[in-house]
Structures are given as C-alpha cells and as structure tokens.
Design brief:
Radius of gyration: 16 Å
Bound molecules: zinc ion
Structural class: alpha/beta
Oligomer: single chain
Number of helices: 8
Order of helices and strands: EEEHEHHEHHEEEEEEEHEEHH
Shape: globular
CATH class: Alpha Beta
CATH topology: Metallo-beta-lactamase, Chain A
Strand content: 25-35%
Number of domains: 1
CATH superfamily: Ribonuclease Z/Hydroxyacylglutathione hydrolase-like
Distance between the termini: 36 Å
C-alpha cells in the first residue's frame, strides 16, 4: 500500500492519498486546504485517482474537493446523512472567516458496507455517527486480508475524541460508535485520524482518557 498524507493551516486537517503499488490505482481521502500537496504526491507516485472519499463533510475536510474533482475527474463519495453539512460548507467556512470554493455535488452516497475497490485493495465503509450524523470509518486493506488501516475522520484521535458540540453531534452516540464499531476492527488496527498523529485501536482503548472514563461508567 502506498500511503501518503499532508496537512495545512489553519485546521491542520490530514488529507490522504492511498494507492495500490501494483496497478497505481488510488483514492484521495478528505482533500482540504492541503489539496495541492496531495496532487503533488499523486504525481510523484504516478497514481491514477479513481475516487474522492469523504469521511464526513465538515468544511476542513471538503475545502479541496472542487480542486480535486477538477484535477482528477473522479467521483465524490459521501454519507447521505452529512449532505446537509456538505451543501452548507461554504457558509460554514465563512463562520471561520474562510472563503472556500463550493464543492461540486456528491456523485455517490455510501450505501452499505461495500467494499469499494481500487487496484488490489478493498475499502469497507462503516457508519460512525457521533461527531456528525454522516461520519464514516474507511477500512482499507489488501483484498482477502483484514483491513488494518482505518481512516476515521474526526471520530477518534490519538489521546482524544471528536467534538460533539457541532450540529448533529452527540456524545453518547460517539462513544457507542467507537466502542461498538471501531473496537471490533481489532487492537492492532492502525488509526489515521483527521487531525494529529496516527495511533492504534488498542493503544486508544488502553490509554485514551475519554474511553477509559466511558468504560468506567458503562457496564460493558
Ligand atoms: Zn469534523
Ligand atoms: Zn476536522
């Protein structure tokens, strides 16, 4: 697997390029303000982008979608429950004093777990509401093997969790999502969050203060 990432101020949101080393087929995840860097990485590795996959539709995760769509002419995938955020991305940007190019309409909604495919790799889609209604975890691995790379958006961070005070956010939903959707993907699964460094499910389950607090007050 070819895995590259980039982040740019002010949000330092991670955008990812994930490619197949054999076929050079690739996807781009959450193109934001760092989109030009991602395009450079695609060119460096001589990849062909087959899809733009969004973990969710907050403005920092979609501000580069229009540019990516123009450059790669690949379909944009989104969870239906985040469409209200996607269509409001320009005005959400203005709340932060940012002027973003309006993202073009989503081409496809995730319907069911997939898999979506690029080259020798499969992407399984897990609905992970809580930070926002239409958040997803994109689980990627070589076809036939368990996917051990998780692109979780803003659901889970190294040592923290996603905020739940934005429209459609819910704390209990987020904690249930992490413990019932992400935990079963395995302690060894690598977590690539929307902001900050990578971690693993096991490390977070054992050390994340929010998850420890939740475990202490939940019977299971
Ligand atoms: Zn977010
Ligand atoms: Zn974010």
């Amino acid at each position: 697997m070819i895995l590259q990432s980039a982040a740019a101020p002010p949000f330092l949101k991670n955008g990812f390029v994930v490619g197949c080393e054999e076929t050079r087929a690739a996807i781009i995840i959450d193109p934001g303000d760092e989109v030009e860097e991602l395009i450079g990485l695609v060119d460096d590795h001589q990849l062909t982008i087959e899809a733009v996959l969004l973990t969710h539709a907050h403005v920092d995760h979609v501000s580069g979608v229009a540019r990516a769509r123009r450059r790669f002419n690949a379909p944009i995938w989104l969870h239906r429950d985040d469409l209200f955020l996607y269509t409001e991305a320009v005005s959400h940007g203005l709340l932060f004093g940012l002027r973003i190019e309006p993202p073009p309409p989503a081409d496809r909604f995730y319907d069911g777990p997939g898999p979506l495919a690029f080259g020798e790799y499969d992407v399984f889609v897990h609905h992970t509401p809580g930070h926002c209604p239409g958040g997803v975890c994109l689980q990627i691995g070589r076809r036939g093997a368990p996917g051990l790379d998780l692109f979780v958006g803003d659901t889970l961070f190294a040592g923290s969790i996603g905020r739940t005070d934005l429209p459609g956010g819910n704390y209990d939903t987020l904690m249930r999502t992490i413990t019932t959707v992400l935990y079963p993907l395995g302690d060894e699964a690598r977590v690539h969050p929307g902001h900050g460094p990578d971690t693993t499910i096991g490390h977070e389950r054992r050390t994340n203060p929010f998850l420890l607090e939740w475990a202490a007050r939940s019977p299971i």
